[in-house]
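Both lines are retained for reference:
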Amino acid sequence: MTTIAIDLPDEAFSALKQAPSAFVRDMRRAAAIHWYASGKISMEKAALIADLDRSDFLAALAAEQIDVFELDLDGLRRELARG
């Protein structure tokens, strides 16, 4: 595993009222959700970055109101035609 060191002002932790470990956890999850939602990484990679299993990552996405399943009208028609 790679370790990355980031210098942050002490005020960053107090602003969110979090210990550094909780801040890092939340930062990993926020980055993973952002990169997943913007289509830069897969759900599998995002869950790995967030240090969550897939079901917990899905729950994190739901908590942030991020749509997981995107289906346009043409896609819906194709799905209905198959079934």
The mean pLDDT is 89. Residues 61 and 67 are 7 Å apart (CA to CA).
